Backbone:
């Protein structure tokens, strides 16, 4: 998959970036909300339903940026090539 079509490659942050912005950094709920463009209640619900990779540290939710980006990439539904759709129809 080329970098232009890979959402993880487009969203990752250079390794020479400040620690708080590196792919291996831990995110808070509000940062995940911004990254996914969803509300806090949606993030909490997804955690409760074990749909989102997360870590609990002393009762606080944290998210590995790399894990969230990988999860996000796995959520993407790509259209089937036109010839594949025609094969299934016929």
Residues:
């Amino acid at each position: 998959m080329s970098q232009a079509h890979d959402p993880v490659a487009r969203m990752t942050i250079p390794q020479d970036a400040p620690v708080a912005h590196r792919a291996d950094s831990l995110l808070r709920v509000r940062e995940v909300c911004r990254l996914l463009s969803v509300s806090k209640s949606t993030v909490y619900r997804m955690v409760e339903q074990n749909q989102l990779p997360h870590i609990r540290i002393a009762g606080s939710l944290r998210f590995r940026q790399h894990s969230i980006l990988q999860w996000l990439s796995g959520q993407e539904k790509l259209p089937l090539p036109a010839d594949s759709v025609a094969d299934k129809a016929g």
Notes: The longest strand covers residues 60-64. The chain has one domain: 7-89. Helices lie at 7-11, 29-36, 40-48, 65-75, 82-89. The mean pLDDT is 80.
